[in-house]
């Protein structure tokens, strides 16, 4: 897993950078002030501001280390600069028609740090994304799901967000 590439879209990288900056420049300095004030109040063993502040500082520092490692390992892939945009590659929005349920679904293939199933963002290492990669409009795919085998037809591939997203 250490050798695995951390592919990420430019938007995903910007979101990680924004979180890092907010933690580093806003949340952590404000918490340091609270902890310093609490430490000056004397007995730290029963000082809730101090105890919980220190705990939160450790959480923030852990998250900062994680974000820095993920960003250092990131390989930014701009979907707009890819060739062969009629096929499904990293960053693509893919509309699928479920042959089993007679329904339509839209997914975007993104990096592991951008995963958000409620928005349709699926990781490029997910079973569905692995089956989709390299396919194009009109292809039929079969995916093993917990509810059984699912069959989908690819009805649209786009590298621009669909209207309304």
Could you characterize the architecture of this molecule?
The chain has 165 residues and is of the alpha/beta class. The chain has 2 domains: 6-76, Orthogonal Bundle (Helix Hairpins), CATH 1.10.287; 79-158, Transcription elongation factor, GreA/GreB, C-terminal domain (Chitinase A, domain 3), CATH 3.10.50.30. The protein is 37% helix and 24% strand. It is built from 3 helices and 7 strands, in the order E-H-H-E-E-E-E-H-E-E. It has helices at 10-39, 48-72, 127-132; strands at 6-8, 74-76, 93-98, 103-110, 121-123, 140-145, 148-158. Strands 5-4-3-7-6 form a 5-stranded mixed β-sheet. It has a two-stranded parallel sheet with strand order 1-2. Helix 1 (10-39) runs antiparallel to helix 2. The relative contact order is 0.15. The mean pLDDT is 89.
């Amino acid at each position: 897993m250490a050798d695995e590439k951390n592919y990420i879209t430019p938007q995903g990288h910007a979101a990680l950078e924004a979180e890092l900056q907010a933690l580093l420049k806003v949340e952590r300095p404000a918490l340091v002030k609270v902890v310093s004030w609490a430490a000056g109040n004397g007995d730290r063993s029963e000082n809730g501001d101090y105890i919980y502040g220190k705990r939160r500082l450790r959480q923030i520092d852990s998250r900062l280390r994680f974000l820095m490692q993920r960003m250092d390992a990131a390989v930014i892939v701009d979907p707009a600069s890819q060739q062969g945009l009629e096929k499904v590659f990293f960053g693509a929005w893919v509309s699928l028609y479920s042959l089993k349920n007679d329904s339509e679904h839209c997914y975007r293939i993104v990096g592991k740090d951008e995963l958000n199933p409620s928005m349709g963002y699926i990781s490029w290492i997910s079973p569905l994304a692995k089956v989709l990669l390299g396919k194009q409009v009109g292809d039929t795919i079969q995916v093993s799901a917990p509810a059984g085998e699912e069959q989908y037809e690819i009805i649209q591939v786009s590298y621009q967000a669909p209207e309304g997203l």
